[in-house]
């Protein structure tokens, strides 16, 4: 999720100690949340808890870290000062909601500041979900590999990245979709409509027989 901006010269891509800490904490919390959700609500109680946790940590790590990195790279590209900050309350909510049966995946945001146009702000917000859609396409072929562990990585990777893309494209509050919608409604529709279709296909066609 991209934060609200607060044009400067081109900046280098750097990570502070606090940012690295927040990324690590958010990664672990989201990994736990997705593992809980999949084990309780999708695996039918037959899968290994440890196996689900490992698969979740790996695939969430790729999807979440690259999502936030995409926001940061885009922001820096437009001359912004950008840094990820975790939202600990939302991380707790993600874990609690996973137990109930839904994941509220808003772990924090890349906050950026500097002069910026509406279009540039929209592109920064769009970068994260776009990366998740690309990652889902990368993981998809693994679903058809006749090796159980590889197939499961593919299923987890597709599910998590499609979920992250779709959830973040919801045009509400601080989510990326609201920023994209405010910038360009046609662009929003071109991205969000396929996200909804992919979410439907993931749950009804690909499945998760873990």
From TrEMBL:
GO molecular function annotations of the record: peptidase activity
Keyword field contains Glycosyltransferase: no
PANTHER family documented for this protein: ZINC METALLOPROTEASE MJ0611-RELATED, ZINC METALLOPROTEASE YWHC-RELATED
Protein name: Zn-dependent protease
GO biological process: proteolysis
Keyword Cell division listed: no
Superkingdom field: Archaea
Keywords: Hydrolase, Membrane, Protease, Transmembrane, Transmembrane helix
Transmembrane segments: 21-43, 49-67, 88-110, 122-149, 156-175, 187-208
Gene transcribed to yield this protein: spoIVFB
